[in-house]
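Weekly puzzle thread! Below is a chain. First person to post its structure in token form gets bragging rights.
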Amino acid sequence: MPLGNRLALLMVWLIVAPLGAQYNPPGTSVAGVDVTEEEELRSSLEDASWQLGALRLQPWIGIRDASLVTSSEDDQTDVTASAGAGLRAYVKTGPKVIWAAHGLPEYVWWQDDAARRRLNGRYGLGLFAYFNRLDLELSARRNETQSFFSSEVQELTTTRHDVARLGFELELAERVFLFGALAHAEDENQEDERTVFSLLDQRIDTRRAGLRYRTPRGFSIGAGWEETENDFDSDARNLSHTGEAALFETGYEGRRFNAAFVLEGRRLTGREGSEFADLETTTGYLETSWNLHRAVDLLVYGRRQVGFSIRNEFASVVAERAGTRLDLRFRGSTLFLAAETGKDDFQATVPGSPERSDDVLAFGLGINFQVKQAFRLSTGLVRTEYDSNVPGFDRAVTAWTASVQLGVFSDKLDLGDGDRTW
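Winning reply:
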């Protein structure tokens, strides 16, 4: 069945994805929030291992994203791992205000490519306030991590992502909320010797506001407006543009079922001198999560996103995905199975360029072991195949990944989770 027909059947699954997102592993969630949940932050504060007066500290030590990656495009295989240690800190300044910070440096090691060994890290500072009618988040973060660059170039690389953000939700009347966010972000690739990755370095300004209505039974519905400005390096690949989007959202939070649905009617306009071709499209994502049994969870999703191409003949990429993930828990361990299908449609910038469309099929499986309380081991395998209508662009990527998080060694030494933000 053509992807368009498959997605038509999945329209109830469609929700909005971040503009410019370049790669999401199969089976992962992309849903965002306006403000970090109060319950989640207070739980982190209360569970912190060390207390120094009003200051709470949570240490972390672990190995993240040990990977063996094989690509059919260049027929190369290498092994990499990121190991780190750091602290999260929390301070309450009154019953309604929490300050949070983290410093989590990590060393990236490559077995064969010594030039790519480097020191990365994740750092952040945030102010979180939860008043009677107002939830507020003011935060700044730097994430310098190694990840896959994009579905077009599915290779591991280090990119620095800086973001400063103000998010809020204000209760205007009973069950009626005003939400909004202002954000400035900068993406800069850190591999100077591989200049292809720097072609998409950019600065992104986002402004979003809207109204949301919530019912006591867990339903919500809302609408809003978003404006974006993407500034690319004009000395590299200038895809600078502005964007406007009308937003619609609805969702449900229940005991065993959750759903989120957002649509964005987007209009992107290239700036003077930019290579970006004007684009009007609908983006979105839907995620539904089901607790089918006390030990079985199911995620089903569909999403449509806009990304950017590194090739001169193409500007933007419209990526469509539909997928599912099944989690099975047993004896302290979790087994997951994921499958995803989709298509990448490339928007040409040069007249006469061939229309390019890549069909995508991906599978993933993995397991998370909890070995008593000493440490947690996660390992998995993801296989992604790209079948292009343009000769020379067929490719397949196989990635094996693993991580080790050290755990509880005593009542006073819980080494925490390296994957959380705050």
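Puzzle host: Confirmed. Bonus trivia for everyone else. The first strand starts at residue 14 and ends at 16.
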